[in-house]
């Protein structure tokens, strides 16, 4: 009798659920096949496009010699004379790269302090090198015996400590991971066979990546070191199918395009193409400009010169065109072996935060507008805000069905007579129904159209809050 009653109750509940339409709204999550055609149909997680600004951290054993760049070991092994000379002058004969690892002490590493600096910089996500090409992991890899930060040097889980601190500040946390390792004998043996074997991928690479994903649940997996082999060797499509279908971050994670020979610029949630990529024009796919504050290196260098460090103007000349053209800016700094961020890097990041506190409305959550770079004034770049997010093509220009709520013109050079001349917004301004205001300033600016060019009277520069680049907002008047 109880079974009959229970069956009747289940039937009635199902009927009621069906009547209120719940069955009609439940969607079975798509499962992606391990091939590029299907993987490429995955919509970009919205958070990434809206974030716009991230910070990249290259930190590892190479931070100990902190000479030349993060490729020091490779350059030294290849016989680069400057590296040989450096080693002859400062280290005893027979010194090995592995002997640098105990000197990677990170004794002053304060993840909470780092995270607060990152939050104040205005960045929305952080990407830490969990392992560079040297193979040393900043997490307790179960496959890197005696060559990880838990066993050698800092004796702590650097990835885990920073992930926790970054998330406490409300930022997204991601990891960089090099596919290959310069001198790992297992990888070298696979390479010797012409990559006919995949012992390294199966016994080292995949286990490390799955440990990273399962233990730290990153929002970004930034792949690198792919260029010696095809994606079939790295088993890239199988890995991404697992990430998108079954991993604990399947709805959150984004990956770049470095998954094998010929893959960059063709497959991935966002494209990197190459280091310091900034095309200056709108592309058809979401992309990222990863660049360094130290123009010479991704890792920390003790002998860097001030002239080699990007000024705030140079930083903004990278960031503003990048965002205007639909990209994200991933700004790299290299921490020291002691676990500190050099004051010059702190200053640049905090200055960027001050700028974004005023001008962030023209950066965050924006989309490309009809024009990117003004055709009359090359120092002016446009963005806009829309009421709806285009999940299929987040960097598309506004369509006829879009409602554009505001257009922003960010100009990198102050005009000599304090009159900014723009051409591309002129057709929209002809109706006379637009307000123009400068972000960070009260009131509206006077403007007029002369021979098809909008002339905007700017405030006195001395009273303007922003010191480096300035943003104008064009919005419809409300009557």
Automatic annotation (TrEMBL):
Domain Glycoside hydrolase family 29 N-terminal: 28-361
Enzyme Commission (EC) number: 3.2.1.51
Cell membrane recorded as keyword: no
Superkingdom assignment: Eukaryota
Keywords tagged on the record: Glycoprotein, Glycosidase, Hydrolase, Signal
MF annotations from Gene Ontology: alpha-L-fucosidase activity
Glycosyltransferase as UniProt keyword: no
Pfam families: Alpha_L_fucos, Fucosidase_C
UniProt record, GO biological process: fucose metabolic process; glycoside catabolic process
Domain Alpha-L-fucosidase C-terminal: 372-474
Residues making up the signal peptide according to the UniProt record: 1-15
Family: Belongs to the glycosyl hydrolase 29 family.
Primary role: Alpha-L-fucosidase is responsible for hydrolyzing the alpha-1,6-linked fucose joined to the reducing-end N-acetylglucosamine of the carbohydrate moieties of glycoproteins.
Name of the protein in its database record: Putative alpha-L-fucosidase
